[in-house]
């Protein structure tokens, strides 16, 4: 696991965009997360698209998850969110931005079809991940099998509380979601997990230094061969090995575009 620590979320976003850029240039299949954390990275990618000609025209994308019970047209659906935050501002074809249907009448069929669509696309080349304060990745809540596949899941009360900020009240937060499984996510060829802010410090520590455990779904990244964890100082604050991670990191020149 590669651990990269920067002072601020803006600096983290620079590194994330630079890690993603070579993949985008080759028309990779991107795995996209929603939530607040990736937004500075998305803004930097939009800037590179507008100012530096970074083209997404040959890319396709798969979202990690979707609230179950929200139609795509709802402004807080992840279908709508990713368009608002990223894909409507770049040159990726809208039909190449795939997501789970939160209004699917038959969720079992929906998740099967989604797995098949990812497979038909040749798999995800590089997957962006955030992390929940309870250690979830996508909406794989604690106790999710580390080999789980895409499925319908009940959101943890902590996730409902954390995500209430996107809705008028916590009563409006859906209690269920369709989510790629941990086993599904682990098949992506590269993973980039971004964690910023003090609220993520405990989860970041459990992910990096805790035991491999379904109690912290993100700890599954310890088993991935190409996983990079990008943290700001606040999210890295509880790491016991902080000095080591900082010492071993900078073989990638700061501010340059690097390929993994
Ligand atoms: C969303 C997703 C979630 C979020 C996580 C953190 O697609 O996969 O796992 O990444 O809940 O959310 P934020 O970034 O809003 O703190």
Question: What does this entry look like structurally?
Answer:
Pathway: Amino-sugar metabolism; N-acetylneuraminate degradation; D-fructose 6-phosphate from N-acetylneuraminate: step 5/5. It is an enzyme of class 3 (hydrolase). It holds the Pfam family Glucosamine_iso. The protein has 260 residues and is an alpha/beta fold. It has helices at residues 9-25, 39-52, 78-85, 107-120, 157-163, 182-186, 201-209, 233-236, 242-248, and strands spanning 2-6, 29-32, 60-63, 65-68, 97-98, 126-129, 151-154, 176-179, 190-195, 227-232. The protein has one domain (2-247): Rossmann fold (3-Layer(aba) Sandwich), CATH 3.40.50. The protein contains nine helices and ten strands. Strands 1-10-9-6-2-3-5 form a seven-stranded parallel β-sheet. It has a three-stranded antiparallel β-sheet with strand order 4-8-7. Helix 1 (9-25) crosses helix 2. The chain is globular. The two termini are 12 Å apart. Residues 253-260 have low confidence and may be disordered. The chain binds fructose -6-phosphate. Fructose -6-phosphate (F6R) binds next to loops.
